[in-house]
Amino acid sequence: MVSVVMLGASGAVGGEALRVLQAMPEITRITLLNRRALRGLGEKVGEHILDVADPAQYRHLLAGHDAALCTLGVGEPSKASRAEFTRIDHDMPLAFAKACAEAGVAQFSLLSAVGVTARSRIFYIRTKGELEDALRALGFA
Predict the structure, then answer these.
(1) Which residues lie below 8 Å from residue 128, measured CB to CB, with a gap of 6+?
(2) Which of 46, 57, 104, 105 is deepest in the core (most CB within 10 A)?
């Protein structure tokens, strides 16, 4: 019996991940932290509409979950400013991970990218790499 808390379920990848999680019999509870309501959620899914950029709004919902999944992202990086990309693809997932660590969530999975490194000269690759390094520092491998 596994419970999962998820950030980013309204996107294309997040929606597919949610569908897969719902089909897994070992997943008994899925908590979604969303900025807008989704349709057609199964009976093991609970949804909370809130400001996903503010961990104070969801911190109390994290305790008791075994795992967290973050698929949050801008979608098309070329359509976002560097500041917006950093906020959505680095800062918000990191804040979510920190809140999960504080709440005792044992596993954290992140939608990232192939070949990321904090040492890259390429902004996108470097930002994703910095996030992965920060997650490792929190104890999430």
Answers:
(1) 89, 90, 112, 113, 116
(2) 105
